[in-house]
Specification:
Layout: E1 2-6, E2 24-33, E3 36-42, H1 64-70, E4 79-83, H2 84-90, E5 91-96
Antiparallel strand pairs: 1-2, 1-5, 2-3, 3-4
Length: about 150
Amino acid sequence: MVTCATHSGRDTDFNELGLAYGHAYTVLGTAVADDQKLYKMRNPWGRGEAYKGDWSDSSALWTEELKKQVGFEENDDGIWYISAEDYHKNFGITTVNTDVSKEHLSYYAQFDVATGTGPVDYNVNFKSSEDQEIFVSMYTYDSQHL
């Protein structure tokens, strides 16, 4: 599961594109429409596609052909599309979540890191049927981890 969050603020306040501040959304997938990279998004509230930028449900950029191409459905289900450019401007955090079915709570992929001397080497592999750019970030709790 891929989730993301808008820049900080109260989720009762919205930016000029209709996105709630400090609110989490789900990235359901990606698509290409008219050579434009799009992310298919979902508001976990499950209703009210408040997003009103390019490629929103009410955007004039949609043609019937493009809607068919990406599987667009007009429903009040909280699902909408956003361009990759607008996504990167409006979302401050993107997280790939692990299978947390046996965990109490997790927001990130967590790896056990050996403490001790010497370098630590980890390999993480991502597979996709599509050519794409991905961004990975990492941090440590303190200097003894890496």
